[in-house]
Amino acid sequence: MIEVSKHGVKFKVTETTEYLNYFWKDIFPNWEDLTYSTIIPHLDVNKTFLDIGAWQGPISMVAQKFSKQCICFEPDTLAFNNLQRNIELNGFNNITAVNRAVSQAPELVLGHATELGGGGTSYLTPTLTFNSKTISISQILKEYKLNEDNISVIKIDIEGYESELLKDPVLKSLNVPMHISLHPFMFPDKEAYFESMAEFFGPVTYRREGDAYEIFINKQ
């Protein structure tokens, strides 16, 4: 068991692989500080936070403190199992974990070049592949009785699949804050990638944190 803290929220995580243990102990304390400082002010104890691409839960296990509930979607079964263990270890009863990818497609083939569960699982990786069940944005809204009035933030970090998910007209129509991680380095034509993003965002400025790009859209 590893004890960690972020934005005043203390919680525990299970020890797993050498890399993931290193992440929690050495990387997490300073990991994606801009992401947290952007999302947290928009959270609401009376609303739901949607975490699409939740991995082991580093965002939601902090966000739960400031939310009515967090609903996490993670298709990588190894990462999902770690997420579930971390939720149970802390007794977080306002976090729901769903082992599905979010997509309009009935099924996705996902993979990783070196190891599953490490946070880099993508539909763009042709090795170590597996078939993932999916759930669409419209299905999420219906199943969890959600709408623009009771969602605080939608966070999307799905290793390149944002280029497909953002085509969903239901997602595009939602007037709620969205924090989206961008992955141009995963595409051979980065200019075309950013052009496809602009179809959803319009003319905006992308923020860069280290090697990662992100954008926060607040339509409200």
Would you kindly provide a written description of the structure presented here, covering whatever features stand out?
This protein is an alpha/beta fold and 220 residues long. It has one domain (32-217): Vaccinia Virus protein VP39 (Rossmann fold). 29% of the residues lie in helices and 25% in strands. The chain is built from eight helices and twelve strands. It has helices at 18-27, 33-39, 60-63, 77-90, 137-143, 162-165, 169-173, 190-201; strands at 2-6, 9-13, 48-52, 69-73, 95-98, 101-102, 107-110, 130-135, 151-156, 178-182, 207-209, 212-217. The strands form three sheets. The chain has a seven-stranded mixed sheet. It has a three-stranded mixed sheet with strand order 6-8-7. A two-stranded antiparallel sheet has the order 1-2. Strand 11 and strand 12 (212-217) form a beta hairpin. The termini are far apart. The mean pLDDT is 91.
Q: Under the CATH scheme, which class? A: Alpha Beta
Spatial order of strands in the largest sheet: 5-4-3-9-10-12-11
Calculate the mean pLDDT score and round it: 91
Approximate helicity band: 25-40%
Outline: globular
Unreliable sequence segments: none
Contiguous helical run count: 8
**CATH fold-level name:** Rossmann fold
Q: What are the main properties of this structure?
A:
220 residues, Rossmann fold, three-stranded mixed β-sheet, 8 helices, 25% strand
List the helices and strands and how they pair.
Elements: E1 2-6, E2 9-13, H1 18-27, H2 33-39, E3 48-52, H3 60-63, E4 69-73, H4 77-90, E5 95-98, E6 101-102, E7 107-110, E8 130-135, H5 137-143, E9 151-156, H6 162-165, H7 169-173, E10 178-182, H8 190-201, E11 207-209, E12 212-217
Parallel strand pairs: 3-4, 3-9, 4-5, 6-8, 9-10
Antiparallel strand pairs: 1-2, 7-8, 10-12, 11-12
